Hints:
Blueprint: H1 19-27, H2 33-51, E1 54-57, H3 59-74, E2 86-90, H4 117-124, E3 128-133, E4 145-146, E5 150-151, H5 167-174, E6 181-185, H6 191-197, E7 200-203, E8 227-232, H7 235-245, E9 272-275, H8 286-301, E10 305-307, H9 315-331, H10 336-341, H11 343-350, H12 356-365, H13 368-391, E11 394-398, E12 417-420, E13 423-426, H14 431-438, E14 444-452, E15 455-462, H15 468-482
Parallel strand pairs: 2-3, 9-10, 9-11
Antiparallel strand pairs: 1-3, 4-5, 6-8, 7-8, 7-14, 11-15, 12-13, 14-15
Helix pairs in contact: 2-3, 5-6, 7-15, 9-12, 9-13, 9-14, 11-12
Amino acid sequence: xxxxxxxxxxxxxxxxxxASELAVLIRSREVSARELLxxxxxxxxxxxxxxxxxxxxxxxxxxxxxxxxxxxxxxxxSWGPFxxxxxxxxxxxxxxxxxxxxxxxxxxxxxxxxxxPAVERLLGAGAVIWAKTNVPFMLxxxxxxxxxYGCTNNPWDLDRTPGGxxxxxxxxxxxxxxxxEIGSDIGASIRNPAHYCGVFGHKPTMDLIPQLGHAAPGVExxxxxxxxxxxxxxxxxxxxxxxxxAGPVGLDAAGYKVDLPSPDKESLDDYRVGVLLDTPACKxxxxxxxxxxxxxxxxxxxxxxxxxTSPEIDQVEFFENYLLLLRAATGVSIHDEAYVAALSGHEAxxxxxxxxRNLVDHAAHMTxxxxxxxxxxxxxxxxxxxxxxxxxxxxxxPAAASTAFTHDHQGERPDRTIDIDGxxxxxxxxxxxxxxxxxxxxxxxxxxVGLIEGLPLGVQIVAPHLHDRRSIHFASxxxxxxxxxxxxxxxxxx
Length: 494
């Protein structure tokens, strides 16, 4: 492959390094912000036609900022931990000068008048934001396709999904178009793409990173279960991004501040972890379970104290509780016609017709009295989780039911299936692994742990409330012991 001449005098694989390493290279002046941006753009020009991760770019603005960053470097100044690093952001984040459409054609003119706090904090930390990345329609799928921007493909296999809703985010990282990404998660939308694309992702404790500037038009309040969080090519980068992004805004900022506990462990043999790799609530691929069993065995040999156990919770009942709360939260954003159309499904659920589609419709129409009863049950689950973490430091589990599945855009999501061990299973069933930590507001980190038949997979690491740094630290130890991010074949250099 002919090497492009865009200012780099070295191998053009720099943008596959972790952000922390790139930051060191900039501080030492071994590479410039402009050179890194040029490589990110070169990768975009070469790879994006196939993967379709980037929806919109602001190259000239980014180049001006990169030049300013280099001038600051030459004066011995640093803007922060991401000084001069090219960064992309999920399309749903408000970034002045770009539309926040959520893949919805009706919101094509939804131009914000202010940056989201997450975007402002990235800029304050020195990032050079240059593009936005693709999402599914209304952020509501584990595939990233919509009428506005088309379909994003997994770089490990273009016929497969990269995940969603932060699918473009994970692909941007995996192909070296960005040093860091920010996504969002209400149903594994950070963790699932990280798992499918072989990168790191962190779903923070609820409300740790503000939702402001990442909301449907007209929605002013916090959406239950939804969180904002980083994706990266190393666990260290997740930790740095968490420090940059976390903290209150608005009225809370007058008196609240973030003081997250530091990890109280140093090495793998300091950790006692529970492991749950299978569940009656969701059919999970045998190959994935077997691979994660092997991962757990390797960690045990490295000193981790492992027990096959989990909180004493009925997982099937837990799953229904999560789905009802989830769809109550997302139901507030559906348009009036869809709300009216959901009435028949709601009535069917009330008659005892228990299908996923009826559940979704019922959740949109449920009374506050019913929602509060479900919320009360969730609070009891949270106490069970807290009791579990009195004995165990973490819980390890899958992030999804399989590796990345093939594209399927036919019909509606509730009716689609995926292949699990030769049988067609509802694609939405694997939301169990999403809700297992998400529903109860717990932090969890996904770390890549190898390949199955040429496709990446990750392990989900669940931590106690506000112990985000613990799961990230464990991910860093896994990275050191087993290896971390690996570039997809064919994307190593440009």
